[in-house]
């Protein structure tokens, strides 16, 4: 039986996290300066004054320099979430993954390895790559007359593990950044809160009475940064858990079909 060329690790869609962070920082700074800091959002057209009554953009601007930092983290989570969604969706392949696994199992039961490999070529994606690598090894072990059955089974199992280890990094890429932002976003919000409260207390301790402008600005900075930090951290936690569960599902599919391939070889060969 002729075997098909073994697939290389799939080239999953991915973006450099460093480049994403730099671009998000630039975007956040521009939004902070020209959208939130637009003079039309403030009394007398001066960003140093109070925001116009009910003007949310001007209120956010009063959050201070910590706002664009937290915005950078928030935009980074959004961009990397979209990137991971595309990458994981591509890893599943072109067709329905559950149906693909069922069809491969049926072909294994029939002993039709060539058809199963054809199915992998049509499906594509990380799961199909792992299955195809295992099927190539399956066919090689069938043709091998020097190894014992147990040795052949171990060889197939090893092939599944190696193919999985090649695909897994592409699935988990950038998740570490999102996981870091789950904590960093909240901490930056806390930092902004502390800075804002320091300004508030400094205004209260100022000579000649309370500076109401400085006091209100300090409170605004504290509250705005708190809100942004909590929102960023919460979004990062949701995104991280969501994509982790999706990767776990893919790994479960790989384990299931790998187990079926090994069992099929064990049952059909002496």
Detailed description of the structure:
The chain is an all-alpha fold and 270 residues long. The protein has one domain. It is 77% helix and 0% strand. Helix 4 runs parallel beside helix 9. The longest helix is centred in the last third of the chain and has 57 residues. The radius of gyration is 28 Å and the shape is rod-shaped.
Considering the chains and any ligands shown, give keywords for the structure.
77% helix, single chain, mainly alpha
Structural class designation = mainly alpha
- Gyration radius from CA atoms, angstroms: 28 Å
Query: Beta-sheet strand percentage?
Result: under 5%
**Count of individual helical segments:** 9
Number of distinct beta strands: 0
Tell me which oligomeric state these chains represent: single chain
What is the count of structural domains? 1
Coarse morphology: rod-shaped
- The portion of residues assigned to helices is over 70%
Order of helices and strands: HHHHHHHHH
Task: Name the average pLDDT.
Answer: 84
Low-confidence stretches: 1-7
Distance between the termini: 18 Å
Report the biggest beta sheet as strand number plus sense, adding barrel if it closes.
Answer: none
